[in-house]
Design a protein that fits this description.
Six copies of one chain form a homohexamer. By secondary structure, chain A is of the alpha/beta class. Chain A has eight helices and ten strands. In chain A, the strands form two sheets. Chain A has an eight-stranded parallel sheet, with helices on both faces. Chain A has a two-stranded antiparallel ribbon with strand order 2-3. Chains A, B, C, D, E, F: Its cofactor is Mn(2+).
């Protein structure tokens, strides 16, 4: 019979107790009006992860060397966004409270709000590093305040001015982009100014949120709102490497949408990126 | 240039004022955890309707002979189920209040609840004829009371015992099926006992809700929860014909899921059924 | 190495000279505005035919017992409909002139016009048996006189009143259906009155044109304009069997659209039907 | 977190020890040259089974009432057919030896050979009831003796003349069909003569093998070699019901091919059939 | 209800009269023998445009700042290439005559011929800048003079020697490439020599035709004849920016093929490119 | 009628006798457990090759200038890996023995073993240049010694230490990567050290094996185990150009998987690469 651990992400089959990072899925895409599917992101990562190796030739390290637990997917009530965020917050807080690092796999980007709420409860001085094609700073979207397009605005309400650092941004309404100039730090198109930000954030608690559409559409077409002109896989890997010297207290990776990935290549890329992030962040 | 009315369902391009039936879309599938896509049902019907004729050889009538207005899709806030139902109720009530018949195109089956609320507000003595593969009589589903799997239970709370008449049912939990025996009228698998029900409902205000998965999966694979062993297209057409002699005050057709219809044949069938239902119900 | 004859339809690898039936493809769908793809029908039949057997348990006969030549696909200039029909007519006439039966695989239904022109040149008294969901009797479609929706009207201009016998029809504009009542024989929905027609056509030269959308959409979803409420595979087989006692001088099978057949089942069905028709018609 | 048993087929989460039927997957399609994918059949049934209910309105029974264990998928070495069959035989024999009924989910039809070998080892007088579109009686296929097209010939070598009873057959080479007339019992196209066979097999140990392509292609397009003209879901259900009064000592269900099932409807049908067969066979 | 302007490309909802650029679709792919689908390009751009923003962070400008009218799709008779080009020419000429800039969205590349005919009628001294992977300079293709593979040859007949400037070319027959050396200016593979051409064309009326397959297949797989080794999105954007200082009197963007874009990413890219081109060209 | 040579790869329609390179397909993917489909690679290349030109603007040469024969696909018994490799070895050896260069199109990468066996039989001093994302140096995979994941280890057993030169490698288990350090030459991620290797191999007989997944997933998603971070098309072309100055005695190109290439762009790229490799290698 197949290994029972096949229901865990590859290499993430340690116990909760012994693990320093806890991965969990947040299968929610309830506010995505246009091209849904991100709800299947975490389960696709879980099953497809067996097509990659646990060993990284980039870092010459192996998932077998570290202690990670895959807690599976949260059971989220689709159609009830408020409750979805509460469930995420509660579980992420439990992990933080146990002295571990929560690593959430989306789901749409709004799920980050639940985990950021948990992180800010524990770390008053929380800073957020945000890799994304979209600034997500709207105050409302289609009349709703809780949306994938408003998530960083909601996070800003929690952490305050100049605590959010965005990279790779190449899409937004004029209004939100202009608002952002006064309230967050935005680096358009690429990571060119990441070094300075990393320097400035040394010693601070950092939440890292990676919306996978920061990648160029050629590299990662399997997402709901693909934006041409993005970063390459190597550039993203390099950026994660730089950020990993900071004190990452929680993190997430969102917006893989398997139904929009007919070749499967975006899903496999997400698995590989997950491995690299885990190896980078784990200390 | 193409006809501007191409943004209307074929043959439904009369004005609101002159029309007796008002068709509108309810593009919502927020409670569908498993295989979403019904949110695209109404817009697919709208654009694909141009592949069928306005003339029915079954009834020797033409959509050009009747007055129907296609109001387009409601703008619904995904992720906020409560508000979605309020918007539907409000719009359906406006149509009813104007002395017209609302014909809603889903969307998932839960949208029926909004329209039933409107109908019951106007017609205290409302009865419901329900064509479906699933009894949808659960009290809760995944902890939520508002769900595609609970919609007829919620409707029952509005209309009371023995006012719901189900046909074609072939799936349900044991608990809900047994509960149904005491509270609704259920005809399993087919329409064999429809004649008697039609006889009994003469003169009563009737809401007709057609979950398209009442059709056999061979006939209609493009739906979220296909159930083998269903009725044929001819049987459904025949059943609608019988029901149309009643006083239909409002109606809907739900659960077409275009992403699950790669050949497009289910979508075209839904368009054709819509034409036949319009011609039958219009008096 | 694979058999060189793999580029022939299975069992149709005899020489032109020794064959009594000549199969050829007409890969054209130039007038199909809505859901193109029928141009790939004949080549799909050719390659997928190797998934069926040459033996028919229905007739207890084998393609190995008869002499059929597959001439491959005609090279047709897409975008030049007039020339396309000329090329078809010329090739079909050559086959007829050599005392053989042309069996054309479409392509969209308009290709039948080319072959009917050839047949009517040789057989002044030609009659047409037409299996289809659509009456195709429009005089114009989108301003064009040469269209898949006008093909039988053009054929009527060649053979005259009461020489076309339609079966399975269940779609048309009111105008064309009413026009048809005066000029052609139309049997709606099924083959119920086929026996009488066969009796009446004994001894006449007959062209048999099968638009595969005569089949129900459950049986044959892989076509450009699927119409629910059609005939079953057994009913179609039975009808072909009855017709085969007539003097079929030419025939065709059109409107398989492989891009609309993601499961591949419609293509395999077309291959099987082709085998049965060949075995029935060959004498 | 989601229920850990989500990695079991719905309702098959009892322990091995307490269960009377043991379901297991045989994810192999190594001899399928044409349209592979059956290897994914068992895992698709496992995950999609959560879209159906455990309760059967056909039998008014529930999977919760019976004791079934889902052992998961066997780990099979693709590319090594001989070893694949050995592994299947070994596991099926272990189940039989423990006094339980093995129920194998394919995979391609050849996997049945492994389980039949196990059954014939325990039951010398084994008879086989075989539902299929194809007779599978070839002696060789593409030069190989172990193939999905030869599986019943290999089984015949184990059980001997007149011990195999085929139903629904509608495809085969002339040679194998004629060979079959002397060695097996074949009922073409349907189940019309099933009653007599059931009567005759009372008291004998029976292996039931269901190749899902016995179903009509409209009902079950998601399979490698779809054959038009098959049985309906109701007919198959009825046939299983009749057979279930016999002493079924082992059984299987094969040839669901998820990649050929883009709408997902064939997979859901297989899940529903599995439930009905379990409820019928369990005593 | 949804905004009625949803049937316009986002941000292109001004009136014809007040607009300086008129966008229109030319849904034609009648000469594409191999992989059709470009006919759906313009309508896909129209509906998918709502997934991007009207604001460009590249240019810090917004579609709201400019005046563009989307006239919808021309109604083109598929199967009649000559008439298709006449309709395009007529409409483009009307726009030019009204002192506006026509911006045509294909459709296959042949549609450019219609618009170039209109432009050359108004501007005798017309020059053409041509971004493409293919030189499209054949005299005939499959026996036809009007084809996507001959379009620039036909344009050359209108404008004469050395008036066509091609960039990004990486495919052609030897014959057409060699012919081109004597009659047009061809820059292979990239835009490296664009600056000089822009300099030379200052003050001349320029038609800009962008065949989207000039982009690398990684960036833009959703097209009929993808060619590896193309330019990046940034390079194309940069090239458009340079060209926009010229006197662009008419332009087009062709060869998006939505059926070949299963992830949807190519369609979204085309929308984004359209926004950038509009903002660049509008003065 | 279409040219009979359409069943040959474009430009490869010379006779066996006059040709210097013989292309043949090895349609096998029997050991691919995860995402099969490579078995369809060679036939897809054959039919899609007609969408590219025979002329290369990169090399200013044309396939018409050289003599290549396409022998079609080998008939391989799926499910019998040992025999598959024997058939490949036998055919490749026949070509080598006739003084020609075999160029095999896969199929999965394991097919290379058959051709390497043939080459090493003729050239005792054989060296292998290996372009791939994966090192394929495992000793066993899922208990089998013959696997796509072990193919280079099996080749190493034939040619010995330091005779295999790998480029582009970015995935492997720690064990195989470490083993490789002692036995083969591995250049990770790119071709940066190719010049030195080419220099060193001057005068030696070289087998060139190109696993197409060496390309970045953005460039070539249509493969079973896509790996982000790969080389571009230009880099691969450049590398092939460099290698072509060596004495290439046999070569292959593997792992195109058409079912994983829904846009078709990967298949077209493989055709174009095939053309370039043929023109480079032919002397």
């Amino acid at each position: 019979m197949h290994d029972n651990n096949a229901s865990k992400i590859i290499g993430c089959d340690n116990s909760y107790e012994e693990s320093r990072i806890v991965v969990f899925g947040a299968p929610f895409d309830g506010t995505v009006s246009y091209r849904p599917g991100a709800r299947f992101g975490s389960s696709a990562v879980r099953s497809e992860s067996y097509s990659i190796e646990t060993y990284s030739p980039y870092q010459d390290r192996d998932l077998e060397d570290i202690r990670v637990f895959d807690a599976g997917d949260l059971e989220l009530p689709l159609g009830n966004t408020v409750k979805v965020l509460e469930i995420i917050e509660e579980y992420a807080y439990r992990i933080l409270n146990d002295g571990k690092i929560p690593f959430m796999i989306g789901g749409e980007h709004l799920v980050s709000l639940g985990a950021v709420r948990a992180a800010v409860k524990k770390y008053k001085d929380l800073h957020i590093i945000h890799f994304d094609a979209h600034s997500d700073l709207r105050d409302e979207y289609l009349g709703e305040s809780l949306s994938h397009a408003t998530v960083m605005r909601r996070c800003w309400e929690l952490v305050g001015d100049r605590r959010i650092f965005q990279f790779g941004i190449r899409s937004g309404s004029r209004e939100e982009i202009y608002w952002g100039k006064d309230h967050v730090y935005t680096s358009f198109f690429d990571f060119s100014r990441l070094d300075g930000v990393v320097e400035a954030l040394k010693g601070k608690p950092v939440y890292l949120t990676i919306d996978l559409d920061v990648l160029d559409t050629s590299v990662f077409p399997g997402t709901g709102t693909p934006e041409a002109g993005g970063v390459t896989f190597s550039e993203l890997l390099d950026a994660v490497g730089k950020v990993s010297c900071l004190d990452i207290v929680a993190l997430d990776m969102t917006e893989l949408s398997p139904p929009l990935d007919p070749s499967g290549a975006s899903t496999v890329l997400a698995c590989k990126l997950l491995r690299e992030v885990l190896l980078y962040v784990y200390k």
